[in-house]
Amino acid sequence: MEAMLFWWIFFTLGWTLIDGSEMEQDFMWHLRKIPRVVDERTFHLTSPTFEADAKMALNGVCGIECQKELPSPSLSDLEDSLSYETVFENGTRTLTRVKVQGWVPEPTQNLTNQGVPIRRKRQVYGTDSRFSILDKRFLTNFPFNTAVKLSTGCSGVLISPNHVLTAAHCVHDGKDYIKGTKKLRVGLLKMRNKGGGKKRRRGSRRSRREVSGDDGGKESKENLKESAKAGRRRNKSARGQRTAAGEPSFQWTRVKHTHIPKGWVRGESGDAALDYDYALLELKRSHKKKYMELGISPTIKKLPSGMIHFSGFDHDRADQLVYRFCSVSDESSDLLYQYCDAESGSTGSGVYLRLKEPGKKSWKRKIIAVYSGHQWVDVHGVEKDYNVAVRITPLKYAQICLWMHGDDANCTYG
Description:
The structure is a single chain. The protein is α+β, with helices and mostly antiparallel strands. The chain has one domain: Beta Barrel (Thrombin, subunit H), CATH 2.40.10.120. Helix content is 21%, strand content 29%. The strands form 2 sheets. Strands 4, 11, 12, 13, 14, 15, 16 and 17 form an 8-stranded mixed beta sheet that branches. The chain has a 6-stranded antiparallel barrel with strand order 5-6-7-10-9-8. Helix 6 (196-211) packs antiparallel against helix 7 (217-238). The longest helix has 22 residues, at 217-238. Residues 191-248 are annotated as: Disordered.
């Protein structure tokens, strides 16, 4: 039954087979020249307090209709929003001002409204269409192996051997860095080797024999009692963290740097902007897992069957990787509005597509957005609730690429 379910996911729904000629013509990655985002000057800032609560902190989010009425941002506004903070492992931080070169304002996105009925505020809409990925053959293989868990409770996605893309609000609430981010860690899924528990038990028996060696009588018994107490304390602290052989667990890695756009870090000057709810984490140790590359987010018309996909660690399914897919309902220049079932914990997940590579027979999955969470949106004067993802636009692609490589030499096309 389980095997049949996975075949159904992969070949019937998740990757939606469409007529080949239609795919060749319409559903393809198109390389495009990327504007340049160049570091101009870096300033040292005071160390943050790391005292914010881990929750979404957005008020008065500009919705679809609001975005239609707003004028296009000026070049100086864009440069201000794309300037960024970097917080380091030791708790210090900097602000880097950037210059944008080669930017041409894009035409206003034709926003859609497909008449989706108004729904009550919740993350799971009607029948829960999420799938828990339990089979280790899928958990440890691409694309599911790219999903990671943050120590703050969010999700993220591997986009290089050293970098994780996630939502900005997973580490910063718009005013300050949230509690725990000074020692932020990223958990990579792994499978525990069989027999691990037996080795630990043999080690415990050896410890007992060493303690009860030739100390003699009373002292030996006291040592044994102390050893037993220490063992119980270790067992108690490890309880709930043990994973049976062959089951998934996490390999935790510290974060070296965290980059957040100033469009999100508004401080006292205003509310955080949902358009900039993304952050890049640089890992202290590189990994050897297959990662997913970034791509420019296409319009709804260029999505195969209008579908998007993402996997994360929803809080209501403890430590299970949860996969979902759904069609996009509405879009703006910076956001995708959809009804993918998702509970808290999945925020920060990488939203991806599978499209044809130009001039090749192969297909490729790329990250085209970051799942941000639930928002109320004003559509034609009516409040609707959506699950929202932040699109990877050409400018955001250039910025994230700059964060990854330290210069824009590898960020010409995307």
